[in-house]
């Protein structure tokens, strides 16, 4: 009991020191209420002070709450102060460009970042309203920013927010101009954040310059230049931004490109930080696109498209004669886009990640195009090849696509949607569909069936134990075939890759959520043009593989 009392006294003292430095009256009141609830609130208080949110290559991301282990004005002030200090230490010149989505606290966090920048003598350019993440990534390049900050938690739950950092050409180099940071920048910024003194001593300046709508118009103009101006445009599209910030920009881009304006799911059209119609604001989650499918059905749409809340990801839902409406996997959209660009004569480097399908590799090999494979994350994809050839396309299986790296050097759900629409409209003139084209690719290269085993946990030790188990007791066979290759990417990355002659499994913890993920792939040859049978065999094999891997991980 004495030890427990000592622990509570220590956390209470930490909380009191935090309260004395917290610039936000609302979060001070929130934390005071938790303190008043002691000793019953001790577990919650301990969690809030379990440690600071760590600034990594994904920036900051966490629940909106008072205390160092949450997203709040104090944490954002400290992060902004550390960032501008680091930028100055690197000799970086130019403005800091700041964007934000429509989540709770996003605008306030963006405005505080601008004040910290100007207080340090650096110009701050604030996007005019809540806008998609790719607009911020574009603005960093377009405006010559030394860096960019995007306040967003992407597709995380409503109670979360986040803080992503991009570098301009001066500090990011040619490959990293307008891209998310990579090591060692993340460690340098984290160290600078930890060195920030009392927040009352962080100078706050003017609110910065709020940019006009001409920036958004410029993004839209450049986005529409990604596709052929003379291509077919007869396509009916249903769309949802999932209560996020994508609708206005996407519909403007479709209109400027000459497509009919997509029909938008009415009760998901406007930004809403509560995300009231979905249990989880991620188009990949079960039920997230049910309203979109209903709209597509009622309007006779050729195609249905969803963005995630910050519109850097793009989900594509198609009508399948066999199964009704179904969402294409990220790997399917990725190879469709790559194939489309290749057929348009776009030459250069095509890239994806170690967890994506191996089909893109096969396509590039057959067509004599350079290919590279990176760790997960667009911060790596846009740096693929190390400059050996210009990147022209990159994708990750988690619905992220970069179809125009010279426009946005990050995943971009707006230009991806435009390019999918261009492909679908072209196929429609031939009486064909996206699924027809997938079947043609399967007939040429074999069925590359991918799926995922994903386990969300409350205790991160479950993930650590599972990774330890697969390393200590690696399966000797999968699907009755010997495992002929085992790669462990530690210490660079917490990833284990298993391969047989026809199967591949990549196991890793998620970088943004409390999840353990296993990415599964089986390659099934197509015999005598019978794609349907090959797909059925591959699907059965992947289902069996999922069970074997779940058992091996102890899930």
Automatic annotation (TrEMBL):
Signal sequence bounds: none
Residue ranges of domain Alpha-D-phosphohexomutase C-terminal in the record: 483-523
Q: What are its cofactors?
A: Mg(2+)
PROSITE patterns (UniProt xref): PGM_PMM
Q: Which domain of life is it from?
A: Bacteria
Residues in domain Alpha-D-phosphohexomutase alpha/beta/alpha?
Answer: 54-168, 218-320, 330-443
Question: Which InterPro entries does this chain map to?
Answer: A-D-PHexomutase_a/b/a-I, A-D-PHexomutase_a/b/a-I/II/III, A-D-PHexomutase_a/b/a-II, A-D-PHexomutase_a/b/a-III, A-D-PHexomutase_C, A-D-PHexomutase_C_sf, A-D-PHexomutase_CS, Alpha-D-phosphohexomutase_SF
The answer to whether keyword Kinase applies is no
User: Pfam families per the record?
Assistant: PGM_PMM_I (PF02878), PGM_PMM_II (PF02879), PGM_PMM_III (PF02880), PGM_PMM_IV (PF00408)
Which UniProt keywords are listed? Isomerase, Magnesium, Metal-binding, Phosphoprotein
Family (UniProt)? Belongs to the phosphohexose mutase family.
Q: State what protein this is by name.
A: Phosphomannomutase
From what organism does this protein derive? Micromonospora noduli
Q: What is the lineage of its organism?
A: Bacteria, Bacillati, Actinomycetota, Actinomycetes, Micromonosporales
């Amino acid at each position: 009991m004495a030890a427990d009392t000592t622990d509570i006294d220590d956390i209470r003292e930490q909380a009191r020191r935090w309260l004395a430095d917290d610039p936000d009256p609302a979060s001070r009141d929130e934390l005071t209420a938790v303190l008043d609830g002691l000793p019953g609130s001790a577990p919650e208080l301990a969690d809030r002070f379990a440690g600071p949110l760590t600034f990594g290559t994904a920036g900051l991301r966490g629940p909106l709450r008072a205390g160092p282990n949450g997203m709040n004005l104090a944490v954002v002030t400290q992060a902004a102060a550390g960032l501008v200090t680091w930028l100055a230490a690197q000799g970086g010149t130019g403005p800091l460009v700041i964007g934000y989505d429509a989540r709770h606290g996003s605008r306030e966090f963006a405005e505080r970042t601008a004040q910290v920048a100007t207080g340090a003598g650096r110009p701050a350019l604030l996007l005019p309203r809540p806008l998609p993440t790719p607009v911020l990534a574009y603005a960093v390049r377009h405006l010559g920013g030394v860096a960019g900050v995007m306040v967003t938690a992407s597709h995380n739950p409503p109670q979360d927010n986040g803080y992503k950092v991009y570098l301009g050409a001066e500090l990011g180099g040619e490959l990293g101009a307008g891209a998310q940071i990579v090591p060692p920048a993340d460690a340098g910024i984290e160290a600078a954040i930890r060195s920030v003194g009392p927040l009352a001593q962080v100078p706050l300046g003017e609110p910065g310059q709020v940019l006009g709508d001409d920036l958004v118009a410029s993004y839209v103009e450049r986005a529409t230049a990604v596709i052929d101006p003379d291509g077919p445009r007869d396509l009916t599209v249903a769309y949802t931004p999932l209560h996020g910030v994508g609708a206005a920009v996407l519909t403007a881009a479709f209109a400027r490109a000459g497509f009919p304006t997509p029909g938008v799911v009415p009760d998901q059209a406007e930004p809403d930080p509560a995300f009231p119609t979905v249990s989880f604001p991620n188009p990949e989650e079960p039920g997230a696109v049910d309203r979109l499918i209903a709209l597509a059905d009622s309007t006779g749409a050729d195609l249905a498209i969803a963005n995630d809340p910050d519109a850097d990801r793009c989900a594509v839902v198609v009508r399948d004669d066999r199964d009704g409406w179904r969402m294409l996997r990220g790997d399917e959209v990725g190879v469709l886009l790559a194939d489309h660009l290749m057929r348009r004569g776009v030459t250069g480097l095509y890239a994806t990640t170690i967890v994506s399908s191996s089909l893109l590799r096969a396509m590039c090999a057959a067509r004599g195009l350079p290919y590279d494979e990176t760790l997960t994350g667009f911060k790596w994809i846009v740096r693929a090849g190390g400059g050996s050839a210009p990147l022209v396309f990159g994708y990750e299986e988690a619905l992220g696509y970069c179809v125009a790296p010279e426009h946005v050097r990050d995943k971009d759900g707006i230009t991806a949607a435009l390019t999918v629409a261009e492909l679908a409209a072209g196929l429609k003139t031939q009486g064909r569909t996206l699924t027809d084209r997938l079947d043609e690719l399967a007939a040429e290269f074999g069925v590359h069936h991918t799926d995922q085993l994903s386990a969300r946990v409350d205790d991160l030790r479950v993930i650590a134990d599972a990774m330890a188990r697969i390393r200590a007791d690696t399966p000797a066979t999968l699907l009755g075939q010997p495992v002929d290759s085992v790669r462990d990417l530690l210490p660079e990355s917490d990833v284990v890759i298993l391969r047989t002659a026809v199967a591949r499994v990549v196991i890793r913890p998620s970088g943004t959520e409390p999840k353990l993920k296993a990415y599964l792939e089986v390659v099934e040859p197509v015999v005598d043009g019978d794609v349907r049978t090959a797909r059925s065999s591959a699907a059965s094999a992947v289902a069996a593989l999922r069970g074997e891997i779940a058992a091996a991980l102890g899930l």
